[in-house]
Write a structure and sequence with these properties.
InterPro entries: MINDY-3/4_CD, MINY3/4. The protein is an alpha+beta fold and about 100 residues long. The chain contains 3 helices and 5 strands; from the N terminus they run αββαββαβ. It has one domain.
């Protein structure tokens, strides 16, 4: 028997397979699951479990960025795989790594 908390998580959690490695992308705001307005600007944590990563990367996602801020998926500009994975859920979102060097 599976615990109800495992079937319906209280916070958003995504298990990712990026570049052949498994990782976890998660949020701590439960409103992100139930309230569409929480999807404007929100925070996610990204953890790979790799030895070189000592703590989760703190990402800020803005789903309503302005056109004058530049196109995040412009041709010739490579983006980290985790950003591309985030954009499968929120197309056109900008991702800020908050001082952490982007990886993956």
């Amino acid at each position: 028997q599976v615990c109800p908390g495992l079937r319906t998580p209280q916070v958003p959690v995504w298990l990712c397979s990026l570049c052949g490695r498994h990782s976890v992308l998660f949020g701590t705001d439960s409103l992100l699951l139930s309230h569409w307005r929480a999807e404007r600007v929100f925070h996610l944590h990204f953890y790979t479990g790799q030895q070189e990563q000592t703590r989760a990367a703190h990402l800020t996602i803005d789903t309503h960025s302005h056109h004058w801020e530049g196109d995040p998926s412009s041709p010739g500009k490579r983006r980290p795989s985790v950003e591309m994975a985030i954009r499968t859920k929120w197309a056109g979102a900008t991702v800020s790594w908050n001082g952490t060097d982007p990886f993956f």
